[in-house]
Amino acid sequence: MTYAIAGRSDAARGLIAVCLDSIDDVDDAARARALSRLSVAYFYFGEYEAVDTYATEGAALAGEIGLFSLASRCFSSLYATSSMRGDYTQALWFAQQMSTAATKSANKVMHNRALCSILDIESQRGNSERVEATLRQLTDMFGREALNEPFVVLEVLALQAAWNGSFERSLQFLNLSLKGIFDPSHIALRRSLMAVFFAVLDQRDEALDQLQHVGLFLDAPATTLDRLGESAAAFSALANVLLGRTTFAKKILKTNPPRGGVAFPMWRLVSHFAERTSVEADAEIEGDLRAIAEVGHGGYAMMLRNLPIFAHDAPDEQTLTPTEQSVLSLLDRGMRPKAIAELTGRSVNTVQNHIRSVISKLGTSGRDEALVVARRRGLISEKPRSRF
Hints:
Mean pLDDT: 78
CATH topology of the domain at 1-105: Serine Threonine Protein Phosphatase 5, Tetratricopeptide repeat
Strand content: under 5%
Low-confidence stretches: 1-7, 277-281, 312-316, 382-388
CATH superfamily of the domain at 1-105: Tetratricopeptide repeat domain
Helix content: over 70%
């Protein structure tokens, strides 16, 4: 594993061959440890199918013999590969299994990692209620210092602030998160988001400085963009559009076409916005925002909807009924459908029908995104307050 992390592939593969030859001759505990280490080694090789094979077997065996701390590490490998593929439903399940195993073993380090993983996925999906609940769980278990260290938590806090239109605060969190990461794709994504927020705040020089860093990453000869890099390219293009540098934006989009995932609807959205010459494109942009949410990135969709450039009313905007307006206000207070039903004397099904009608009329893909759009349109008088 040490050789794999250090990039010494030949030496690592030689030891792996020796390990595989003897793995059936050891007891279950040693076999589970070997499987866990093999999954990590193959993760650094980028061979994710092998990671899945060894980590799945390792997690099952470790769970059977009561080595739950080891099982949590295997689930961590499975979470990582699922997340890298963009399979966020599967990644969330593995993160939850990691949390359960870490709890059973009283392994605080792995439990912290599991909660941060859950937090990352839920923020990507735009699930604000789960983000709030997981942040509370983190602080209750590990203290408020837990919010100052993991770069994942800082990124989530930045996204959460952007959902509420607090772009200055988003920039503070993103800047702090840069101090804890070394992966070029992660750094480029954060810098591209910072460029977008600086552009929204009319801080042109700061935005251009961030774009220069991202440009060096995108133009590096050895750079092969992963999904994070593709998203960084899309946000970089968006920042250029906001700065009136449409030619630069089009060049970025042309030279960095996405292969799929969230980057494709992002790429399409920025392309539509860069080419927009009339309000007819508004419907296309609405469709792009919904597509971003549908591929598992409701968090980005909510953030984008809050940017002033996308703060236009949908062409087919419909008026909410007084009952729908009331249900919307109660949702904004954090109430669930069952509680709203009890308060208003309606059935849960009736309340859920009103919620679906609100979502449809606002042209959004879910409850959280509907709240963001409602606040932007002034349908809700106050923003919900977060304790973080």
